[in-house]
Design brief:
The complex is a heterodimer of chains A (about 260) and B (about 500). Chain A has helices spanning about 50-60, 80, 100-110, 120-125, 145-155, 175-190, 225-230, 240-255, and strands at about 10-20, 25-35, 40-45, 65-70, 75, 85-90, 160-165, 190-195, 210-215, 215-220. Chain A is α/β, with parallel strands linked by helices and about 260 residues long. Chain B folds into two domains: about 1-275, no CATH class; about 310-500, no CATH class.
C-alpha cells in the first residue's frame, strides 16, 4: 500500500479499524478523520470503546484490522516515528518514583533535545497551579494534580495530536474550566485534540463529535449537523447527543 | 469475647482463601477435597523426608566438628538471641506491628470492635509464623552442636531430645520477644506523641553494649535456651521466664484496648499497599521496593540534580543513574548478587559437582535475578505513558537504563572471581565471561518485561535456552564453541529486545 505524502494527508486517518479481545469486539470498523486545529469529542457509554480507540491511535495497542495514519504515516508500521507527533494522556498517568515534578519536565525536554525549555516549563507549571510543588515527588500529588503534571509534560512536547482519556474526570470544576480555556488556546495554535469524556463544560464547542456504542461509531459530525440529523431540540449536551444517537440507532435497527 | 471470635473467623477465612489460591497454583480446584488431602499428605511426606535427611546430615556434621567449635557455637547463641530481640524491638518501634489491610481499614477499623480483638489474633498469627520460620533453623543448629556436645556414642534419640528441649525454651522466647515488640510498637498508635520522638527506635540497641556490663540479665533468655538443652532447668528459672512472658502478653492485651485506630490506619498505609499487590509483591520484588522507597522519601526534597547539558540517550542514562544513586541499595544488592552467584559458580566448577547443581544454579539465576537490575527499565517499558516520550529502541533503552546495575553485578562477580580463581587463565576467562553472563541475564529479563505477558516464564526460557546452547557448544567445541554460542545468543536476544521494547 502506498503512503500518502505527509503534506497532502489529513493529520489523522482511522480507516476501518477493528480490535478484538478474544471473541469480544472492542472496536468494530471504526473510521474517522481529523485536521489540524480541530477539537474532537469522543462520546459514549462505559465500555463503548473510546479508550481502546485512543490507545490504538497512540500506537499503544495494535488494531486487529484496519489502518491508522498520522500525517500519512502508518502507526503500526512506524510506531516510533509517530511518537513525536502524538501523545496520549491516560486518565491515571504514571510517573517515575525517583524524579520530582520539575525533573519530569527537565527529563522530557532533554530527551527531546529541546533548548531553552525552562521558561516554558515554568509557565506551564504556573498555568496549571503546580509551580509551588515543582520540587515534590508526583506520587505525593492528588489525582487531579497528577493529571495536570502529565498534561504539562505532554504540552512541553507540543504534539500535533493530543489524545486525552477522560481529562475532566480527575479535575475540580474550576480546574476543568481552566483546562478547557487552555485547550482552546492550544487548538488555536494548530494542535488537534481528541478527547473522550462523559462531561464537557457548557461553553465547550468541539468541532466534531464522534459517538460510539458497542465498539462502533454510531454517529459523527459537526454540532449543527448532528443537531439536525439526530433531531435534537433542546440543549446540545453530551447527554442529549448520546440519547439522540442511541434512539436513532434503535430506530434504524428496528426498521 | 464475641469480638475476638468474629475477628478470628475473619482471619481464618482470609487465610483459607490465600491457601486455596496458593494450592490452585499446584493444580487444586476448589471443592476437590481428595486432591487437597493428597497435597497435604504429599507435603507431610516431603517435610518428613527432607527433615529426616537434614537432621541426619546435621548429626553427621556435628560428629565431625571439634569441641572448641561447639563451645564457640554455644557461646554465641545468647548473643544471637539478644540480637534477634533487638532487631524485632527496633522494627516495632519504627512501625507498629499492628498492620491493617485496606479492607481492614474500611470494615474492621471503623467498626465498634474492641481493638484488643484485632490485636490478639494478629499477635498470635505473627508469633506462629515467626516460630515456624525460626525454629526449624534452631533445631538444625542445636542438632549439629548436640551431636558433639553430648558425646558421639549417644543414640540419635538423645541428640534429638537435646534439640527439642532447647526448642521449647526457644518457643517461649519467641512469644516473649514478640509480646515485648507489640507492647513497644503499640505505644506509637496509643500515644501519637511517641511517633514524633526522633530516634526512639534506636533505644533497643542500647541493650547490646549493656550486655557487656550486665550479661546475666541481658543474655538470660539465650543462656536459658542453652542450659535447657543439656539438663532440666530449675523450676525457678522456668517460672521466671514463663512468668515474665505471661505478664508481658497480658500487659500487651491490656494496652491494646487503647489503640487509636486512626493512628493504626495511618501507620498501615505502606503495608496495605504492598498487601494489595498480592502475589505480585513476591513475583516482582522491585515493585515492593518501589513502594517502600516512595514511603521513605515521600516528604523529602530530592537530592542531587539531573545534569542540565545532556540530551537524548545521554539524558535517559543520566536519569537512570540518578534513580539508582538516590536509592543505592539497588546497586549494592546487584553487586552482592553478582558476588554470591559467582562464588556459587566457583564452588560448582572447583568441586566438579553433579549436573543437577549446575541446573539449580541456572534455575536460581533465572528465578531470582538481582532486584535492581531492571528497576528503571521496567518502569519505562511497562508504563506506556512514560515510554511514549522516550525516542529510543528497546535495546538502546535497556543499555541506558540498566548500565549502572549491569556494571555493579559485573564488579561484584569479577571481584569474587579474581580473588578465588585457581590460575591466571581461569581468572582471565572469568573476567571475560562474567559480563556476557550478566548481559544475558539483563537481556532475557528485558525481553520478558517487554513482552508483557508471562514475563517470568519468558525470562526463564530465554535464560535456559541461552545457557543450554552455551553448554552444548562447550561440550562440542570447548572454549571456541562458547565464544561463538555467546555471540549468537547475545545477537538473538538484542534483536528480540530491540523489536519488543
Amino acid at each position: 500500500m502506498s503512503e500518502t505524502p505527509a503534506e497532502a494527508a489529513p493529520l489523522l486517518e482511522v480507516n476501518d479499524v477493528s480490535y478484538r479481545y478474544g471473541s469480544f469486539n472492542a472496536l468494530s470498523h471504526v473510521s474517522l478523520k481529523a485536521e489540524p486545529g480541530q477539537l474532537i469529542a469522543l462520546v459514549g457509554r462505559n465500555g463503548a470503546g473510546k479508550s481502546t480507540l485512543l490507545r490504538c491511535i497512540a500506537g499503544w495497542t495494535q488494531p486487529t484490522d484496519g489502518e491508522i495514519k498520522i500525517k500519512g504515516i502508518s502507526v503500526s508500521k512506524t510506531e516510533r516515528q509517530i511518537r513525536e507527533h502524538v501523545v496520549l494522556l491516560p486518565d491515571t498517568p504514571p510517573f517515575y518514583s525517583e524524579l520530582s515534578a520539575w525533573e519530569h519536565l527537565q527529563f522530557t525536554a532533554q530527551v527531546h533535545s529541546y533548548m531553552d525549555w525552562e521558561d516554558e516549563a515554568e509557565e506551564l507549571l504556573e498555568r496549571y497551579g503546580l509551580l509551588a510543588n515543582k520540587n515534590a515527588f508526583p506520587f505525593t500529588f492528588s489525582r487531579g494534580m497528577r493529571y495536570k503534571l502529565a498534561l504539562c509534560i505532554a504540552l512541553l512536547v507540543e504534539p500535533a495530536l493530543l489524545l486525552m482519556d477522560e481529562p475532566l474526570g480527575p479535575l475540580d470544576p474550576v480546574s476543568a474550566d481552566d483546562l478547557w480555556h487552555q485547550l482552546a488556546r492550544h487548538k488555536a495554535d494548530g494542535m488537534t485534540i481528541l478527547l473522550s469524556s462523559h462531561q464537557l463544560p457548557p461553553e465547550a464547542t468541539p468541532d466534531l463529535y464522534v459517538i460510539m456504542e458497542g465498539g462502533e461509531v454510531i454517529a459523527q459530525g459537526t454540532p449543527d449537523g448532528l443537531r439536525e440529523s439526530l433531531k435534537i431540540t433542546g440543549e446540545m449536551s453530551l447527554d442529549n447527543l448520546l440519547r439522540g444517537a442511541l434512539k436513532e440507532r434503535r430506530e434504524t435497527t428496528h426498521a | 469475647m464475641h469480638d475476638v471470635r468474629t475477628i478470628v473467623w475473619l482471619r481464618w477465612k482470609l487465610f483459607r482463601d490465600d491457601l486455596v489460591y496458593g494450592l490452585r497454583l499446584l493444580g487444586y480446584e476448589s471443592g476437590e477435597r481428595i486432591y487437597a488431602l493428597y497435597l497435604a499428605a504429599l507435603l507431610v511426606f516431603w517435610a518428613f523426608a527432607i527433615g529426616s535427611y537434614l537432621l541426619d546430615q546435621a548429626i553427621n556434621v556435628g560428629r565431625l566438628i571439634s569441641f572448641s567449635t561447639v563451645a564457640t557455637g554455644l557461646e554465641i547463641i545468647p548473643i544471637i538471641v539478644l540480637a534477634g530481640q533487638v532487631w524485632v524491638w527496633v522494627n516495632s518501634l519504627r512501625s507498629t506491628p499492628l498492620k491493617l489491610s485496606f479492607s481492614d481499614m474500611a470494615y474492621v477499623a471503623t467498626s465498634p470492635v474492641n481493638p484488643m480483638a484485632i490485636a490478639l489474633p494478629d499477635f498470635l498469627r505473627q508469633t506462629f509464623f515467626r516460630a515456624l520460620l525460626l525454629l526449624p533453623f534452631a533445631l538444625i543448629f542445636m542438632t549439629v552442636l548436640g551431636a558433639k556436645a553430648i558425646g558421639s556414642n549417644n543414640p540419635i534419640v538423645e541428640i534429638i531430645f537435646f534439640s527439642l528441649r532447647s526448642l521449647i525454651t526457644g518457643l517461649i522466647i519467641v512469644v516473649l520477644t514478640g509480646a515485648v515488640g507489640w507492647l513497644l510498637g503499640m505505644q506509637r498508635v496509643i500515644y501519637p506523641a511517641v511517633r514524633r520522638v526522633p530516634g526512639l527506635w534506636l533505644m533497643p540497641i542500647v541493650l547490646i553494649p549493656l550486655a557487656l556490663i550486665w550479661p546475666d540479665g541481658m543474655l538470660y533468655a539465650g543462656r536459658l535456651l542453652v542450659v535447657s538443652a543439656f539438663e532440666p532447668v530449675s523450676l525457678v528459672a522456668w517460672f521466671y521466664l514463663i512468668g515474665v512472658t505471661v505478664v508481658t502478653v497480658v500487659g500487651m492485651l491490656f494496652f491494646s484496648q487503647f489503640i487509636n485506630m486512626t493512628q493504626a490506619i495511618d501507620e498501615s498505609q505502606l503495608f496495605a499497599r504492598i498487601q494489595a499487590l498480592g502475589i505480585m509483591a513476591w513475583r516482582q520484588p522491585d515493585l515492593q521496593m518501589r513502594l517502600r522507597m516512595q514511603s521513605a522519601v515521600g516528604g523529602r526534597q530530592p537530592w542531587l540534580r539531573l545534569p542540565k547539558n545532556l540530551t537524548g540517550g545521554q539524558a535517559i542514562a543520566a536519569r537512570a543513574a540518578l534513580s539508582y544513586i538516590r536509592h543505592p541499595v539497588m546497586l549494592i544488592t546487584a553487586g552482592l548478587w553478582g558476588s554470591a552467584m559467582t562464588y556459587a559458580a566457583l564452588l560448582i566448577v572447583q568441586a566438579a559437582v553433579p549436573v543437577q547443581l549446575v541446573a539449580a544454579w541456572i534455575l536460581v539465576a533465572g528465578l531470582v535475578p538481582p532486584v535492581g537490575l531492571l528497576y528503571v527499565y521496567r518502569s519505562d517499558v511497562e508504563e506506556t505513558f512514560l515510554r511514549q516520550f522516550l525516542p529510543l529502541d528497546g535495546f538502546l533503552l535497556l543499555l541506558a537504563d540498566a548500565l549502572l546495575p549491569i556494571i555493579a553485578v559485573c564488579i561484584g562477580g569479577i571481584v569474587v572471581w579474581v580473588a578465588n580463581a585457581p590460575d591466571a587463565d581461569a581468572m582471565l576467562a572469568g573476567v571475560m565471561f562474567i559480563p556476557v553472563i550478566v548481559l544475558i541475564q539483563a537481556l532475557a529479563g528485558a525481553y520478558g518485561v517487554a513482552r508483557g505477558e508471562k514475563a517470568l516464564q519468558t525470562r526463564l526460557i530465554a535464560i535456559m535456552l541461552s545457557y543450554g546452547a552455551m553448554a552444548l557448544a562447550y561440550s562440542a567445541f570447548a572454549g571456541t564453541g562458547v565464544i561463538a554460542a555467546s555471540a549468537l545468543v547475545l545477537m538473538l536476544l538484542i534483536g528480540l529486545v530491540t523489536q519488543e521494547g
